[in-house]
What does this fold into?
Amino acid sequence: MSATETPVPPAVRPTDRWLVLVGALLIQTILGTVYGFSVFVKPLTAAPFGWTNSEVQWAFNLALLVFALTMIPAGRLQDKRGPRLPALIGAGLLFVAYLLTSRVDGPEDKVLWWLSYGVLGGAGIGFAYVCPIAALAKWFPDIKGLITGIAVAGFGGGAAVFGPSVSDYLNPDKGGHTLSEFFLVHAIGAGIAVLIGALLLRNPPAGYRVPSKAAAPGAAAAPKPATADADWSGMLRTSLFYLIWLMFFANAMAGLMTIGLVKSLVKDVPGMSEDLAKTAITVLSLANAGGRIMWGAVSDRLGRLNTLTVMFVLQTFAMLFMKTGLDLGVAPAYLLIALVGLNFGGNLALFPAATADAFGTKNLGMNYGFVFTAYGIGGVVGPQMAAMIKDRGLPFGLAFLIAGICVAVTIVLSLVYKQQAAKAKAAAA
It folds into this structure.
């Protein structure tokens, strides 16, 4: 080939990138069952366990924290070996985690509950979660926000199906099964499903180009990163990383706190029956899933930072007016809960895409692992705040006021980020 010839991009089948998306959705839907955690609170706070809300909640906190921390080594492995191997490791960890959780059958098994569901389960999620996101960003650079949103919508939507079905499975008047029986079934189902999804994952070949007909109408061209394909050490030396991290933390904390409180919040809403209260959880889950797709698609056209700013404004409103809305009745309560879910879901679509925009896709697995620690720490602070409020009988309005102020600060941070990103691009040009 002469020096003037353009290399021919490798041939790929039209179905290749869509099979990766199928695998991603399968994995993410299983991983998203962690958001159905609230169904375990009632059986574990009742006899024979008798644990406090905070003691039960620590398994969820640990799962989210370990999930986030594990994404760093999982992302590094993904960047070096491709998405399939870490996803397979995740499948194995989830199987072992839930198999061990099936041995929890009394109050003396509290530590086993934390270590199996929390630590091992969180590690399994962390290894499997980053792989689909990093792979899809490379297969779909033209619609990065939308495709990331679709993939992680499975994570948000998993709880919408999981929560009600598990409630019925454990209900003495319906399924009547024990937690041990459930986790044995869950171990097998989760392990097999993530295994199949992992086998569908792979990176595009070197030189891959997006077919022009695959681009969504009106979609913007893939943006050039602010700092071209930075590795994790280069990323940590930029102000952009810390601004992204703080924005992600505040919004994750607020959303996860609301998820932890929703069952307690809606029970005192005027006109809220038990069936309507169950529907509120489904509304939150579906809005969470839908927000990932909606905000991801909007960001491909409006721009990542502009979309984040709009989302932060709406979430600030939802936090500050949550208590007032709950006092007004069922419809306003549903509306505010849906708004929180919609905006919280958007975080999980926009922040990986924003990380790729800022630092490139070459090292996205590990880079987003560092960014995602914000979610892990928010996953401890938010739910623990919710659990402490419930255990101590404090007013829920205090928690929403704190969360609202934190989210309001991120509006300012997003504007600062926009200025810093523009400077970084100008310096790299």
Remarks:
- The chain is about 75% helix and 0% strand.
- Residues 86 and 127 are 5 Å apart (CA to CA).
